[in-house]
Amino acid sequence: MSSSRPFVSGNPSEEEFTSGKGSPVTQSNIDVEIVASAASNEAGEAAFERRLMRRIDLRMLPLLGLLYSLALIDRTNLGVARIAGMGEDLELSVGTRYSLVSCVYFIPYILLELPSNVFLRNFGARNLLSFCVFAWGAVQLAMAFVPDWKYLALCRILLGAFEAGFFPALVFIITTWYKRHEVQKRLAAFYLISILTGGFSAILAYGFSRLAGKAGLNGWSWIFVIEGALTVLFGCVAWIFLPEFPDNNSFLTSAETKFVLQRIQEDRGDSLPDEVTLRKVLHHMADWKIWAYGIMFMCATIPAYAIGFFVTVILSGMGWNLEFALLLSAPPYVFAAFSVFVFAWLSDHYRSRAFFLAVQAVFVLIGFTITGFVQHPGWRYFGLFLGNGGSAGCIPGILAYSSNNIVSHSKRAVTTAIIISFGGLGGIIATMIFREKDFPRYIPGIWGTISCQVLLLILLGVLTLHFWCQNKSKRDSTQGGIVDLPYIL
């Protein structure tokens, strides 16, 4: 505004000026313009933030979800391969062979997750993850040619070793890109992609098995050949497109990277990595809350693995033939994908983790009670919907709950690895409690799953009470102003 503009007399309490076109501009109008300009800047920044986060979502989540779906398919396709002829060819029904072959996968899976996550930055996220995908795809391919169940068990051990670092690394990377109240939707987004793909994997695998006799291979061998080859192919694609951590990514400009790091710093104060040392790792492992999260995650994965390994067997035990058992295995996964995203959106929107986790754990409890103890096959099938939906939702929910209450990259690496290691333990337990001799009702497995949901609810209550007390103590000690980050309940 030019100083040469003439002064015009008016309201004595207000200075009035005339614009170049003669229209009066008051001080209050100037204030309105300043506010409007600020609002415009804020709106522009908000629009920029939305566009940037959408771009990050599209770069990360579809690919990560697809890769994790390959991991789930490759670790759980034994059930379909078994009923497609592998059980007879390799004599897996003898004793506990099938449970043993299913179980040995988890031993290296559990043992290697922590060292893999701790050294993830040293190897480079893209290098390590793409190697893992390529390597376990090669092992999956080799499983098509095993001559007996012992070689199959060896391949399952190698499969567990190469998949060990994959899932915890994905969770670790995703949680470093987003604010605390954005995390669960993102974890759910990539997880539901894997749920949907995995839900139809049994039908696809059955289709592959119809190639029996081609090239002299059995039908179950074709399942491993095709799925293994696809995984190897995506391992090569992954090396080109997989994202790194936000501070060393290659697909954003420096200004965009700075913006992402700034919003993370403002939210929880750990945008940049801290050094990982043995002393830090041991210090983090001494935190009892990590182990509580891990046991909760184990309780959530037991029903998920039970359904993944045994859904077609359970359905065939209800009286349906092979084709119907395979077709009916997909709808519970479609429901689970819908349930996962709805609960993730509610949890992020209302900024509450524990309540929605509790609701989903109750879903599992009710669902497995119906499947185990109701006589009508239709109701038992309905129970699988509730059980699968609840357990699938608890998995990203627990990961979000734990990651929201962690500060520092080193603790995030340790916590994520330990929690997902307990998920591997859940897989072992699932293969042990759903025993061959308990077919078709698997009552001991049903009781074990129900008991684990009760344990999950107890631990969730203990953690929630602890966090509530800690937050209250912080508020009291600062007379209403919280200096440290509050825990998210």
UniProtKB/TrEMBL annotation:
SUPFAM superfamilies: MFS general substrate transporter (SSF103473). The keyword Oxidoreductase does not apply. It comes from the Eukaryota. Keywords: Membrane, Transmembrane, Transmembrane helix, Transport. It is found in: Membrane. Its main location: membrane. The keyword Protein biosynthesis does not apply. It is a multi-pass membrane protein. InterPro entries: MFS, MFS_dom, MFS_trans_sf. Residues 1-12 have a biased composition (Polar residues). Residues 60-473 form the Major facilitator superfamily (MFS) profile domain. One of its GO terms (cellular component) is membrane. Residues 1-25 are annotated as: Disordered. The chain crosses the membrane at residues 60-78, 98-120, 127-145, 151-175, 187-208, 220-242, 290-318, 324-347, 354-375, 381-401, 413-434, 446-469. One of its GO terms (molecular function) is transmembrane transporter activity. This is High-affinity nicotinic acid transporter.
